[in-house]
Design goal:
Layout (H helix, E strand, L loop, with lengths): L1 E6 L2 E6 L10 H13 L5 E6 L3 E3 L4 H5 L7 H10 L4 E6 L2 E3 L2 H7 L2 E4 L4 E3 L2 H4 L7 H9 L1 H8 L5 E2 H7 L4 E2 L5 H14 L2 H11 L1
Parallel strand pairs: 2-3, 3-5, 4-6, 5-7, 6-8, 7-10
Antiparallel strand pairs: 1-2, 8-9
């Protein structure tokens, strides 16, 4: 249920469980983390979903069995954040719950107009994954982060763009073409140069 396509230095991982809003089972989450760790060899890693939702986060049954607090979430987001190349979250729809972590760890987030972002951990009785609040605050500031994490605020694509949570919003049929355009310079550049720029940005 996690697809992976490799085209030279471009890797595209697709969450493919649209009948369940691309919610993640333990196996799917571990597979994504494995891909992100292996993508140290890629120049660009793209994360996207099948259908109209990027991911609803943990599968509800799996969450009740402990997946909501699994260290695999941090393994995934940590591996994405550590990539020497460019990472792009191609949000084909709403991103929610634990799936926010992988989007926050990416260098860029591009979404379709109907996408929303929300992270209702407090309502569900969980803490967010340890690195997620800091990444969220870095993008949108502490007050807006608390709106999402503590007040259950759902952010529309347009508001997310205005806040800096999303970097670009494009129509669905243009999503992957825009991703390829954004990836082009990194794919053509010396990988050491791309890695050096990322270090400088941090």
């Amino acid at each position: 249920m996690i697809g992976l396509e490799k085209d030279g230095g471009l890797w595209v991982a697709t969450i493919n469980r649209p009948e369940k809003a691309n919610s993640l089972t333990e196996g799917m989450l571990s597979r994504l983390a494995d891909i992100a760790q292996a993508a140290q060899a890629a120049r660009v890693l793209v994360l996207t979903g099948a259908g109209n939702v990027f991911s609803a986060g943990a599968d509800l049954e799996a969450a009740r069995e402990g997946l909501a607090t699994s260290p695999e979430w941090e393994r995934l987001s940590g591996a994405i954040a550590a990539l020497p190349g460019l990472s792009i979250a191609a949000l084909n729809g709403t991103v929610a719950g634990g799936a926010m972590g992988m989007a926050l760890a990416c260098d860029l987030r591009i979404a379709v107009p109907g996408a929303q972002a929300f992270y209702p951990v407090m309502k569900l009785g969980f803490l967010p994954q340890p690195s997620d609040p800091c990444r969220l605050v870095a993008l949108i500031g502490p007050a807006r982060a608390k709106l999402i994490l503590m007040a259950g605020h759902r952010v529309s694509a347009e508001k997310a763009l205005d806040w800096g949570l999303f970097d670009r919003v494009v129509e669905g049929e243009a999503l992957m073409a825009e991703v390829h355009s954004m990836a082009a310079d990194s794919l053509a550049a010396d990988p050491a140069l791309a890695q050096a720029i990322k270090v400088l940005c941090h």
